[in-house]
Amino acid sequence: MEPIIIPEAQSFLLPAGKIGCVLVHGFTGAPKEMRLMGNYLQHQGITCFAPRLAGHGTNVKDLPRMRWSDWLASVEDGVHIMRGICEHVFIAGLSMGGLLSLLAASYLPLKGVIAMSTPYKLKDDWRIKLACPLSLLFPFVEKGQSDTVDEETATDHIEYPAYPTRSIAELNLLLSETLSRLPHISIPILMINSRSDQTVPVTHQQRYGDRLKGKIFESLNLDKSGHVITEDVERELVFQSTLNFIQKYT
Question: CA–CA separation, 134 vs 156, rounded Å?
Answer without folding.
Answer: 32
